[in-house]
Every structure is written in structure tokens, then in C-alpha cells.
Amino acid sequence: MSGPDKPKVIGEEWSDERVKSFLAIEPYDKAIDPDFNALLKAYQAMRAEDFERFIGFFVEAGRNLNGVNEHGETILDLISQHRRSTAYADILTAAGAAKKAGY
Question: CA triplet 10, 24, 41: central angle to 5 degrees?
């Protein structure tokens, strides 16, 4: 079985099933926004091409691209702080994600 518990392998092709499996990720701490958590885990595990597919499934499922972490940051706020994550930020922006004021 493939899914979020499978180790990251660079260059591996991901099936739609595996990409969609990240929609089911639940945070260990119930105080953490489940939408932010799923986006963070997908960002950490996926190549930009797979992340783009995930975002399509995420939006299609009616999930919130602008959920926040414990610091009030959206996933776009967080990713925008990483120099090498421009492609991920562009994918989120194109899908309608927003930054919070001050980020």
C-alpha cells in the first residue's frame, strides 16, 4: 500500500490514489487545523508536480487552503519563507490561497 506513511523517494511516480491519501491525514493534536496539517504534510512529502495534483483534489473536496497553524500562518505564509519553494507558492496562489496580513 502506498500513502503518507511511505518514505519519500526522489523521482518516484505517484499515483492519484497515493496523492489523494494525504486528504485523510489527521493531526495528532486536535488543536491543529486539519486542513493546514494536510497541506503541510503534502508539501513536505511531494514534488511540486504531485503537490499541484494534490491541491486540485484538495480544492475539489471543499477543503480550506487558508487554514492556519498555531502562529496564525497559512501554508502560503509558511512556504513563502522558503527560498526554494517558489513553485509550491505559485501553485497555491493559482488555486486561490492567500497570505495573512504581515507575511
Answer: 40
Helices 86-95 and 48-60, axial angle in degrees (round to 10): 20
Q: What is the mean pLDDT of the chain?
A: 89
Backbone angles phi, psi at 68, to 5 degrees: -120, 155
Q: Which domain holds residue 49?
A: 16-23+30-95
Quote the pTM value: 0.85
pLDDT of res. 6: 55
Query: Is 71 a member of any domain?
Result: yes
C-alpha cell at 1: 500500500
SS3 51: helix
* Residue 100 covered by a domain: no
- pLDDT tens readout for residues 33-48: 999 999 999 999 999 9
Query: How many domains does one find in the chain?
Result: 1
